[in-house]
Predict the 3D structure of the following.
Amino acid sequence: MWRMNPFDTVKNIFEAFEAPSRIFKNREVLRSSYVPDYLPHRQREISLVASILAPALRGETPTNLLIYGKPGTGKTASANFIGRALTSRASDLTSRYIRAFLELNRKLGDSTTGIMEEASGVVGYDELLGEDLMKELRRGVHYIYINCQQVDTGYRLLAHLANHFARDWNERVPISGWSPDTLYGKLLERLDREGGVTVVVLDEVDRLVAKSGDDVLYTLTRINSDLKHSRLSLVGISNDLKFTDMLDGRVKSSLGGEELVFPPYNAHQLRDILNQRAEMGFYPGVLEEGVIPLCAAIAAQEFGDARRALELLKVAGEIAEREGEEKVTEDHVRRAQSRIEEDRVGEVIRTLPNQPKLVLFTILQMKRFGGDRRITSGEVYDNYRFYAERAGMRVLTSRRVSEFISELTLLGLIDSRVISFGRQGRTKVIDVKIPVKRSLTVISDGIFSDVAEIPPRYTYRRAF
């Protein structure tokens, strides 16, 4: 006799999962995007950045700043932490200036001061005192964080900045269609209308430059010469220590400023970070003793990546939760490690079109058979042609393959940078950022299976 499964009705489908978690107290604090009130082992870096940006609170233009560091070294978290602190302090100072203004009126015997204080609670200081006077009273600081993986063209960047200061929907800049001069003019107008100092943080700025060039950076570094009532300062964040090698000389010169490197976390520091989040995120006694040390050790081996450590801990907890366990064990961590790596790399590779997938296959084969030998873009193209012919695929131009290399770099599958070899000129050098054998297994399960065991034909240079 047929019986209804409790999952057969829309009403019941979530009932089995409605019970409160016995593992997580607050899983949100385990996300890398969460910024706690204290960042362990980054006080030195935070203090340095704060000292560079502090002039903004006095209405002065901070020096431009470039922050470098491997993924997961706390660059973004520190930037968001500092941004929150900077805007909070600016707000406090604004209130102080207003109170000082009212106190001055009181001492001068202005009989309307009491009325003004009462009215300010109804309509607000901006309307009460007027926009021009309020600009004089407040040392305005605007802190704008932009992830250049999403805002990845010069037009989008300038439009995003202009729209930050839009007062209603009708003022918003369209996502395309304006001329560069019109867009730039609108940004100048909005910045001067707001006044004060604007600090713009460009996270993963190397991705913006790799895709769209450095013209927009040059524009922003020169913008202060066109502003009348406001100032702008740039903070660039990059995973690539050689980022400035991508820039034109004039852009380097205009950018100037300070540089700061965030070092990788060691295992001890990662344990401190995980202990802080675990105390907020898990119920007491849920984590077995070896869980946090194991997560920290794995992440320490992968360039001290705190995001990786947090992801391991969160996914391990989710595996235990779904299996109805009351504790998170080291086995859950190891299974989380396998799942994360397979999910992340496998999904990206599987969704690649065949031509960029062939370029990645070529690079992986060169790494597999060549070991630590250096790989250049020219050698990749020679071997790409070799494999394309044997796989029965159309051979594209070297320019198109170079574009694929840039796309694979943006996806985080490979690393590529331009290096000068003196009289021999400049060339792009490539390295692999994903597990070679596992990635080849994913790629070779398809049209490349017939060439999977064929070594590359090109004899390329040894590493430096």
Remarks:
- The domain at 352-451 is CATH 1.10.10.10 (Arc Repressor Mutant, subunit A).
- The chain has a mean pLDDT of 86.
- The first strand starts at residue 65 and ends at 68.
- The beta strands are 65-68, 141-147, 196-203, 230-238, 258-261, 375-376, 414-420, 426-432.
